[in-house]
TrEMBL record:
Pfam family, one: DLH
Domain Dienelactone hydrolase, first and last residues per copy: 4-189
Alphabetized InterPro entries for the sequence: AB_hydrolase_fold, Dienelactn_hydro, Dienelactone_hydrolase-like
Superkingdom classification of source: Bacteria
UniProt keywords, alphabetically: Hydrolase
GO molecular function term, any single one: hydrolase activity
Annotated protein name in UniProt: Dienelactone hydrolase family protein
Amino acid sequence: MAEVLLFHHAQGLTSGVRAFAETLRAAGHTVHVPDLYEGRVFDDLEDGVAHVQETGFGTIVERGRAAAEGLPADLVYAGFSLGVLPAQSLAQTRPGAKGTLLFHSCVPVTEFGDAWPQGVPVQIHGMDGDEYFVDEGDIEAARALVKSTPDAELFVYPGKQHLFADNSLASYNEEAAALLTQRVLAFLDGVG
């Protein structure tokens, strides 16, 4: 079984992120879900984004690194949207990663190093009409990552919802989330 460090999105550690972690736990995986917002949860994505802009993206990445301290090196790093930043940073800079799961976002590999670490499998999941994923360059970063390593997979779902895998939000898409979860569980079984 895999051990996963899962980071929440810009709205905070919602009940939907917690439910996703519980789904992974029910399949036998160990899942750590740190709160990078120190208890704050936002009803609206824009309010969450404003909070992270005030807090600083670098602070969020550092809080993610701090959350990894004391945990084993052989983790699977996972992140929802904003949580992709600490997940991708740790996967690229902390030796020993078993895998990476990037939901709704992907940043260029050059943000955290020269190349994706050899032998670290990664899955990227996003929607083909999601303005954040498509219009802000994340899909291009994901495609470049897939092209750069044989250990990367990109899954693009039909729809325009950004946080479609969080069942506590209006953007939740049950069909796409179920397929994402199926793919994630297969991935974790393969690296666990």
